[in-house]
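ok so heres the complex, two chains, lmk if somethin looks off
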Amino acid sequence: MSENGHGTTVIGSLKDLQSFIRERDNWQNIFYMTPISDLCKEYPCILGIDEAGRGPVLGPMVYGTAFIPINEQTLLETLECADSKALTEEKRDVIFEKICENHNKLGWGVEIIAPNTICNSMLSRSKYSLNQVSMDAAIGLIKAALAQNVKIEHVYVDTVGKPEKYQQYLKTIFPNLKITVAKKADSTYPVVSAAKGIEVSEFGSGYPGDPITKKFLSNHCEPVFGYPQLVRFSWSTASTLLKDIAYHIECEEDDGEKTPPATQNNSITAFFKMTNKGGTKAKTRHIFFKQRHLSRNVEF
Amino acid sequence: MAIHIYSGKNNIESKLNDSIVQSIPFRIHADCDAPVSQFFQPYVKLEENLLKGSFRGYPLKGKKLDIPGGYVGVVLHESIRPNNEKDERKFYVINKFNEVVYWNWDKTPSKNDSFIQALDWIDIAEALHSPITEE
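and the predicted structre for the whole thing:
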């Protein structure tokens, strides 16, 4: 790994990438983009974005992006990443090394969204959906490339959701770019497959059905806190297991949000009614205490 | 009913751990020790004067509250809770603290939170009940 003039890390090989990731806390998000070559600033580029790790109950979601000048795109074919369905881990590593070798033409970036960020988003007050997390990650990558003066002309995005809506949404954010969102874009557009070559799978399977994953979840349960933060708590696999082996918890909702009781509309004649003014009135505490939720529970 | 607090003076003055109390907006149906330093504390971040944490996947926003000068926070332990409401209750001081981290679920702690409001009483009580000195 080397440092460039700006004192930031430059990743030039698979080894570099692996140590870059290992050095960072896996409970926090990671963002990296290569230094931008002059070619990518000068000539119109295509940019591909691919997503990995939406399903698993463990580990992060990874967004990869690759960009290359349109007139250099034949290079993508030599990477042999077009048929990404057949991509094994070893094959992916080879592709990544090739991408690094061609850094003067082919730029790339990666955003790793930590599992805790994912469930914090899903369990926030204003429900932030997984789709929105995913779209924002893609937008972040495009913006980062634009900010570093990559001359983007056309963006290709792979999606598992509805392509039309997503494409429309990106179009409103980047009106000057051509945008194509498609299902299985990784097998149609080589630049998206190249993006796929960037994603690094850290945790074996991590899929909810996987028996090893299930065993991990039940072995690593802590009755108060649940799981370590690499687990996505918001997944049903995780939450149903917790119901059985961890203490039950309840989120304290605000009392203040309760609607105040309606004011009584006494009839006018009620004013003339005799009341037991002479009777003893219960001693109430000052409103100061009530507002501050202070009460006297026991006499000392 | 009377309440007795034992070993207060000795323990508060002694070298009991100055622990940090975390107040989280959850009712946990258990009464036990919890590995806070392993599962909670390492993941707390400070971002723009706001503490951020996480409990069972829920995002938390927190604020450090100092116990006012002249006061000390104590952790009390009751071994046996009497069945009868009228019986005396015995508490033992088992720890002390000088700060509380107050956490809300995905909401910045503010003067609107009753926990923070309740601390106002300390200043008011001081003004109301401290002896009057003639000048």
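quick notes: The mean pLDDT of chain B is 85. thats all i got rn
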